[in-house]
Amino acid sequence: MLAVALLAVLLLGACSSSSTPGTVADANNDGAYVNAGNVTYQMQISRELNQYNNEDMEYLAGVRSTAVGPDQLWYGVFLWAKNQTHAPQMTTDSFDIIDTQGNVYYPVPVDASVNPYAWTPQLLQPRDTEPAAGSMASFGPTQGGVVLFRLNNSVYSNRPLTLQIRLPGETKIAATISLDL
User: pTM of this prediction?
Assistant: First the structure.
């Protein structure tokens, strides 16, 4: 019995993966935390969006044109952030997605005055979160602010995708998250 228990522990240990700080290394990422500078980010969920679905239409509000080409799709990355420090910290709006072929996708601008779910950089006071407690996005189904991307359908062949997070005003990548598409 002890041998079976020891074998089970060894097998379960072999299934775990390690990652460096600021990186989530696999697609089982929903809910994982990464540190980008002094702000902790959590990807609540990421998924393809359907512009004709009632819920998804709300996430696309405030986009100049919601039309996508026959070889494109909408993709939403829903993020939450927290200032874990004792001083005010700025969240970022510097994100991109890269696929295994090196194709880089940048966020589509979203008018936050029209879309209450839109991710917008905020100055967070100590222990504050984005989306702010009590906001529409914090009570929404994803409990995160949406960073919206228009991707080519080829991303399905070029997985995994990686969300890259940069600090405000910097070009160096501060954290990455592998996306589940």
Answer: 0.84
